[in-house]
Write a structure and sequence with these properties.
The chain has about 80 residues and is mainly α. The chain has one domain. The chain contains four helices and no strands.
Length: about 80
């Protein structure tokens, strides 16, 4: 409902659209278990999305520098190389 108060629509947020569909299914007792399971998945995804958004808004940056981001890990460079005779 908060999205409607902000002048937005449910289609802009797919998770909200899924939650609305699940709430419709909850009204049918035979679909209750599946609907509740799906709702739990949606809430988990929403929580992960909000956590990632919070990190982004705080200015989170990766600790990798451009030099280390493109370099091969040292364990990959220690492969046995065939000797050419």
């Amino acid at each position: 409902m908060a999205l409607y108060n902000q002048g937005r629509y449910a289609e802009e947020k797919p998770l909200l659209a899924e939650a609305i569909e699940i709430s419709r299914r909850i009204n049918q007792p035979r679909n209750l278990a599946g609907a509740l399971g799906n709702l739990g998945t949606i809430l988990l995804r929403e929580e992960q999305y909000e956590a990632a958004l919070k990190l982004f808004q705080q200015g989170w940056r990766s600790t990798a520098t451009p030099a280390t981001a493109t370099a091969w890990p040292s364990r990959w460079t220690t492969w046995a190389r065939p000797t050419i005779t």
